[in-house]
Write a structure and sequence with these properties.
This protein is mainly beta. It has one helix and six strands, in the order E-E-E-E-H-E-E. The chain has one domain: Nucleic acid-binding proteins (OB fold (Dihydrolipoamide Acetyltransferase, E2P)). It has a five-stranded mixed β-barrel with strand order 1-3-4-6-5. 13% of the residues are buried.
């Protein structure tokens, strides 16, 4: 059986990219991404936000740091990774993160040319 681990996310940066370098000099940037989901329950609109950390390597890491900032809209493609570590307080911490293979810069919302569309209601949702 084949395996597939590919994710595509469209959202906004929650903070400025954080650029570091590995001991051998490889650039590594960490991006915080917020993905908004709006849905309707009855007559009331609900907002849900999913926060994901993304890690970018190499020249793409430097480019994201040079051109993106908090609030920038981006499309991130990559794969999910489960990571665990021991925090300074001795507690075991875990999280999912995206190892990005592509980060596409998008125009800010005031520059976007995509027409707005009505969010799907829970009654119309395909699940």
């Amino acid at each position: 059986m084949a395996n597939l681990n590919h994710i595509t996310l469209l959202g906004h940066l929650t903070r400025d990219p954080d650029l570091r370098y590995t001991p051998n000099g490889t650039p590594v940037a960490t991006l915080g991404l917020a993905i908004n989901h709006r849905y309707r329950r009855g007559n009331e609109w609900k907002d849900e936000v999913c926060y994901i950390d993304c890690t970018v390597f190499g020249r793409m890491a430097e480019t994201t740091t040079d051109y993106l900032s908090k609030g920038s809209p981006v499309l991130v493609e990559g794969r999910l990774r489960w990571r665990s570590w021991e925090a300074q307080d001795g507690q075991l911490r875990t999280k999912h993160e995206v190892l990005a293979t592509n980060v596409q810069f998008l125009p800010r919302s005031d520059q976007a040319m995509e027409p707005e569309r009505e969010p799907v209601t829970l009654d119309e949702a395909p699940f």
